Amino acid sequence: MTERSPLTAEERAVYEWQMWVPDFGEEGQQALKTASVLVSRCGGLGSVVAYELAAAGVGKLVLAHAGNVKPSDLNRQLLMTHSWLGKPRVESAARRLQELNPRLEVVAVPENVTEGNAAELVGQVDVVVDCAPLFGERYLMNREAVRQQKPIIECAMYELDAQLTTVIPGKTPCVACLYPDDPPAWKREFPVFGAVSGGIGCWGAMEAIKVIAGLGQPLLGRLLTCDLRDMTFRVRTISKNPKCPVCGGAETS
Amino acid sequence: MDVRVEYAAQVKRAAGIAAETVAVADDCSLQELAGQVAAAHGEALQKLLLDEGGGLQPSILIFVGDEQVRGDAARVLNGRDTVTFLSPISGG
């Protein structure tokens, strides 16, 4: 991460209440200010991840999401608005984020993560928050995060279920350890409430904040599973695949 | 003996329930448990849990208690174990 810069009077005023959090304080806030995060995509999950990171004072967000706003986006993609139907998603996301936090640097990329851009996108940031609907995109971000040794937070949801884990390459299982093959049962469109995607998106943002600021214990080697039907929350231990073709399964640091 | 089986995400949808207590043989393995519940809950669950050869689908995450079990289909279960079958989910 880049060298930390002092907080302005405006920043102190805005982030006052979170700087009161023990073990965070001004140092943690400065860490956020100089940090950069890739959020891909910025839909039901990514909208909320990006919004909470913007609210927390992350310095730079790189948003990657192709396509235009559709009516079916509006039950969960909270950075999109009715007035933006038919227009590019990343533009709405950038607009809404800047309304909340005009100090935020937003790089809005009207593309989904592909083989052609994954290295460049991950290369621009310190941390990745994976909010993609397709495992192909997840595998690309994971491969680059492992290759570039960058943390990647994995958020997911389906109906009223949600999952969350944080990958530190070399220390924890990577995405390919967990999901060795593109799961045949996963479909692009699936049942979901915005409160579910938004909920896990908030916690995914909090994982990113914890990693950047060195706060608390991120979900390293642990998978949080949530069933909001009956409010069952479990933290489970997950393991590396010793034969993982991406991370090799070995401890490197 | 009895084991508790929990289903998550799409596995839960296919099973039609979130959890159940299943009576199994005393030396029941994970593989056998998967086969037993798949047979009990029909084709949708069977397709998710088992591959064409009847082995455990590699994409399904399996936990005994809160510990992931990897590549150990022959693992023999203990009475009152809780086994979770969890299908991978993504975002959007």
Question: Your description of this structure?
Answer:
The complex is a heterodimer of chains A (253) and B (92). By secondary structure, chain A is α/β, with parallel strands linked by helices. Chain A has one domain (10-237): Rossmann fold, CATH 3.40.50.720. Helix content of chain A is 34%, strand content 18%. Chain A contains 9 helices and 8 strands. Chain A has an 8-stranded mixed sheet with strand order 3-2-1-4-5-6-7-8, with helices on both faces. In chain A, helix 4 (44-56) packs parallel to helix 5 (89-100) and helix 4 packs across helix 9 (194-213). The model of chain A has no long low-confidence stretch (mean pLDDT 95). Chain B is α+β, with helices and mostly antiparallel strands. Chain B has one domain (2-86): Roll (Ubiquitin-like (UB roll)). Chain B is built from 3 helices and 5 strands. A 5-stranded mixed sheet of chain B has the order 2-1-5-3-4. In chain B, strand 3 (61-64) and strand 4 (67-69) form a beta hairpin. In chain B, helix 2 runs antiparallel to helix 3 (43-49). The longest helix of chain B has 12 residues, at 30-41. Classes of the chains: A alpha/beta (253), B alpha+beta (92).
SSE layout and pairings?
The complex is a heterodimer of chains A (253) and B (92).
Chain A: H1 9-14, H2 16-19, H3 25-33, E1 36-40, H4 44-56, E2 60-64, H5 89-100, E3 105-109, H6 118-123, E4 127-130, H7 135-147, E5 152-158, E6 161-167, H8 175-178, H9 194-213, E7 222-227, E8 232-237
Parallel strand pairs in A: 1-2, 1-4, 2-3, 4-5
Antiparallel strand pairs in A: 5-6, 6-7, 7-8
Helix pairs in contact in A: 4-5, 4-9
Chain B: E1 2-8, H1 10-15, E2 19-23, H2 30-41, H3 43-49, E3 61-64, E4 67-69, E5 82-86
Parallel strand pairs in B: 1-5
Antiparallel strand pairs in B: 1-2, 3-4, 3-5
Helix pairs in contact in B: 2-3
